[in-house]
Amino acid sequence: MLRQGEPAKSEALSRSVVDHEPDNAHAWYLRGLALRAMRNFDEARACLETATAKGFTDAVAYVEYARTLILLGERQGAETQYLKALEAQPDLTAATRELGSLCLEAERLDEAEQWFAATIRIDPSDSVGRRNLAHALFRLDRAAEAIATLDEAVALVPGQPDIHVMLATLHELENDLPAAQRHAEAARALDPGNPSAAVILAKLAHRRGADAEALDRLDGVDIARMSDAQHVTRQAERGRVLDRLGRYEEAFAAYRQSGEILSRLQKGMPAQDLAARAARMSAVEDGLSRERRERLALRDANRGDSPAPIFVLGFMRSGTTLIERILGAHPEIAPMGELPLIADSADKLNDDLDGGFPRGLFSLETGQAREVLEVHRRRYLSGVLDHLDDRDSARFIVDKAPFNAEHIGLIRLIFPEAPIIHAVRHPLDVVLSSFFVNFADPLPWSFSLDTAAALFVRMHDHLTAMTLESADGIRQVRYESLVEDPNAVVGAMLDHIGVGWDEACLNFNQNVGGVRTASYAQVARPLYDSSVFRYRNYLPFIDRAVLEMLQPTAIALGYDYSA
Question: What angle do CA 202, 206, 209 make, to 5 degrees?
């Protein structure tokens, strides 16, 4: 009955068995599967737990128990059951593959890689395991290995359009457009109506300037075959194409629909996300006074034991990636992308210190507090070395994690002498661009203009509060000025850092490997001005409340707020 899609009948039959034979473990197991198919997850868990307790300890029983726990949101318990499955049957790929997926969701990328690698060692033709391994490797900034893993899948398991779609996606992200085109066409040949292949082909057409073709492809997608996630990508891409065609009202509508679907998919809680970020910033502003910063800051923090950090910070879409690529083209500076190291230290300090950070730091003696900070300084520099390919040639590294702006207080305690570049762009351009972009890791605050604007204002206020009295180590760089006069602005940045002029900085677009942000396509181009004051095209469609919210910050930053 279960196999024939009759879970209610299956549940009734298995229940009658356990009523007469309470120790029939297999019947408890089947009843659990039937209840799960009926979406009665709590009773399903109880039945599967009873089945294993009464001796049904086949590996598959533990896997099904784990899957049920995942549906209940109990991922830690699910991991335990998967491990029991592997004790019973070490070569069970369902367990290794699904364990890897749990680790991937939890951002435990190294563990995810290990489980997915184990999956394809057991079964080299496991195409799902290979796709998952490629995903983990790409997230670990090992794009070449990710692509090689998928190339092997094409050879071992030919005829799978999804593998070609993923290869096209990775090649496009790596700015290898001919390879992306080749694999997208291969996916379409295998499955002419494949919606993901159509969207990638549209994206490639847009990148070569064929916007009419791109829009035809996007509007010709078989909507019935698309998942919600694919709808998000399609509408975001339609927005980009319509924007360049000058059809701004339609573009705004497409971007808005993409955000609405994404919000529903992610069950995002923008207000709570915004409140949590604001609370963390307020705690630092209230507790980390100038006197305390000066007393605890680690002097002579850059001691030559590793490349010294340059922090490029600012709001998302404010030009941080562009600045990082320009600086990273200098032979003495290594671009590192969005390192999570400062945010990780902030989280760990909040967890480890009684009272959190920064309050818990001040309950310690000065010497103890500096020892704690020294641990995090060393952890940061060690993490940099783990990410650095060539440790000998770089004097500096660039850390451009935009939300390092939230952690400016911690940065100044650990690296008080580090050069900081603050990327600034017109607030409406920043907020609109954040709203328009379909970020790889969904950010709940970006799903609507009002929450994006509110976070922008709060972060500006935080930077103002934390740097008003000690701005000597911070250089503000306006995106608009950088585009208008790159020689002068780049020269001033290099002077601020303390390195000499190098012409390579103006040719940054000739080496764009390793860009893992939403700006990967833009930095493959020379400097251009089409994004300067782009907000003017969308003023008629922006709610008045958003415009009023941003106006004081725009004026404080020196921007004209007129249309």
Answer: 140
d(CA 86, CA 65): 13
pLDDT tens string 185-195: 999 999 999 99
Structure tokens at 536: 């003017």
CA-to-CA separations, 209 to 54, 225, 502, in angstroms, rounded: 65, 27, 32
358: preceding bond cis by omega (within 30 degrees): yes
What's the pTM value of the predicted model, to 2 decimals?
Answer: 0.79
Conformational region of residue 515, where left means phi above 0, alpha means psi within -120 to 50, and beta covers everything else: beta
Confidence of residue 469 (pLDDT cuts 50, 70, 90): low
* Spatial CA neighbour of 100 closest among 55, 61, 69, 131: 131
How far, in Å, CA of 205 to CA of 394, rounded?
A: 38
Residue type, 442: P
Which SS3 state, helix, strand or coil, does residue 521 take?
coil
| pLDDT reported for residue 304 | 62
Confidence of residue 520 (pLDDT cuts 50, 70, 90): very low
Residue 303 in tokens: 């001691």
Domains of the chain in start order, with CATH, are 162-267 (1.25.40.10), 277-556 (3.40.50.300)
Two structure tokens written together for 147: 């692509």
Calpha distance 3→200 (Å, rounded):
37
